[in-house]
Amino acid sequence: MQWHDEAIVLTVRRFGETAAIASLFTREHGRHSGLVRGGASRRLAGVLQPGNQVAAAWRGRLDEQLGQFRLELTQARAAQVMDEPPRLAALSSLTALLATALPERAPHPALFEASALLLDGLASESSWTALYVRWELGLLAELGFGLDLTRCAVTGTDADLAYVSPRTGRAVAAEAGRPYAERLLPLPSFLAAGRGTPPANDAGRDVADGLRLTGFFLARALLAQGGHLPPARERLRLWLEGEALPPPGPLPAPPGGVKPLP
Amino acid sequence: MAESDLDRLIRLLAKLPGLGPRSARRAVLHLLKHRELLLLPLKDGLAQAAERVHECSRCGNLDAIDPCAICGDEARDQSLLCVVEDVSDLWALERSGGFRGLYHVLGGTLSALDGVGPEDLRIDRLVSRVAAGGITEVILATNATVEGQTTAHYITDRLAPGGVAVTRLARGVPMGGELDYLDDGTLAQALKARRPL
Known about the structure:
The complex is a heterodimer. By secondary structure, chain A is α+β, with helices and mostly antiparallel strands. Chain A has helices at about 40-45, 75-80, 85-100, 110-125, 130-140, 175, 205-225, 230-245; strands spanning about 1-15, 20-25, 30-35, 55-60, 70-75, 160-165, 170-175, 185. Chain A has two domains: about 1-75, CATH 2.40.50.140; about 125-240, no CATH class. In chain A, the strands form two sheets. Chain A has a five-stranded antiparallel β-sheet with strand order 3-2-1-4-5. Chain A has a three-stranded antiparallel β-sheet with strand order 7-6-8. In chain A, helix 3 packs antiparallel against helix 4 (about 110-125). The longest helix of chain A has 20 residues, at about 205-225. The radius of gyration of chain B is 21 Å and the shape is globular. Chain B is an alpha/beta fold. Chain B is built from seven helices and six strands; from the N terminus they run αααβββαβαβαβα. Classes of the chains: A alpha+beta, B alpha/beta. At the A-B interface, helix 2, helix 3 and helix 8 of A face helix 6, strand 6 and helix 7 of B.
C-alpha cells in the first residue's frame, strides 16, 4: 500500500535513536501517523516542526499498519511565526487541537483547507485572530458540534444576535436573551449572521469572547471523547486576553544595542 | 535461567546512547581485555560520579561541588545570565568559549504533547534568581524549535515585570553553510535578521 498527499505536521515523537513517529494532518487521509526514518536527525529537524506543510509519501505492507513516511518540506510555516508569541501560540494551539480532537484516518478535506489558510494567515494577515476563532468554529462543525449562529433560537430573527445558548449552541437575540444574560455566552459581533467583516479591534474583547465561546464547546466536545483542551489553547487565550489589557512598559535595551524579544 | 555477570553488563551498556547489543558486547570484551587500564579506572570513575556529581542548587548544572564551578567563578560576568534547555546545551556554549556569564538550566521545554508545564521546569527558580537582583540581561538560548521558542516567549512574559533586558540567540546561516543546502525556514530567518555591513 502506498499513497502521496499534502500534509501539515502536528506532532513528532522520537522513536529510538534515529527515527521518529510523526502525526500528520493530510488532505485526503485525515490525521495519520507513520514512522520517519532519520526523523531524529538534524537534517529533518527543521522539516518536522509543528505547522510545517510537507509532501508526504506513506508506504506500508497493510493498510492498518503504522507504515513509513517519506517527507519533503513544501512550506516552512513554523519559522515564519517563531518570533511572534501570539502567532506562535496560535500555531501551537491549532496543531495541538487537531492532534487531540481528530480521529485517526478520517478525512476532513475542508478542515485541511481551512487549517492551511489559517497557517498562511498567521504569517501574513493582520486580522488573524478573527480568522483563528472562525477556524475553531469550523473545527467544531467538523467534529459534529457545529453552532447555529444564523438566527435567534427564540424569535427566529437574524437581527441583533448577541448571545449563544450553552445548552443548544444556538444564537439568541439581545432582547430575548437579556433576562438570561448571565447564563448565556456572549456572541461577538463579527461571528453574528450577516456580519462577516472582521471586527474593528479583533485583538480585543470581541476575540476574547469568541475564544470563550468556541473554548466552551470545544471543551465539551473533547470531554465527550475523554480528553480536554490542550494547554497550548489555554496559553493562546491568555496571550490574547493579555493583549486586551494595557501593554506593559518597554523593556530596557541591553548593552551593545541588541534588540530585546518582541 | 539466571543472567550471568557478563550478560548483565552487556545489557546495561546496550542501553547507552549510540550503543546496541553488538557494540556493547565489543565494549565489554575490550574492557575485560584491558582490565587494569580501562575496566578498574572506569569502575572507580562511575562510582565517584554516582556519589559526588549532583545538580547545582543555583543553576541546575552538573558538578561535584555545589554551587558548581561556573556559579562559583568570581571572574565571570555576574550580570549576564544565559538560559539553556539542558546541561548538554550549557556544555556546547562553554566549548564555544564565547560566553563568560552565568547559566540557568531549565531541564526541558514546555510541551503540550508530553504534558510538560511551567511547574515541571526550573522557571520559578529563574524568576526568583533574576528578582534577587544583580542580573542586567537574560539571554534565552533555547532551541529554534516551536517548543523551544514557546518556552522562550513564556519566560520573556514572566520576566517582563522585573524590567530586566531579555535577548535571544541570533538565527541564520551557520559557519560554512551554503545557501543552496539550507532549509527554507533557516533562510527566511536569516533574511529577517539581516544587518547592515
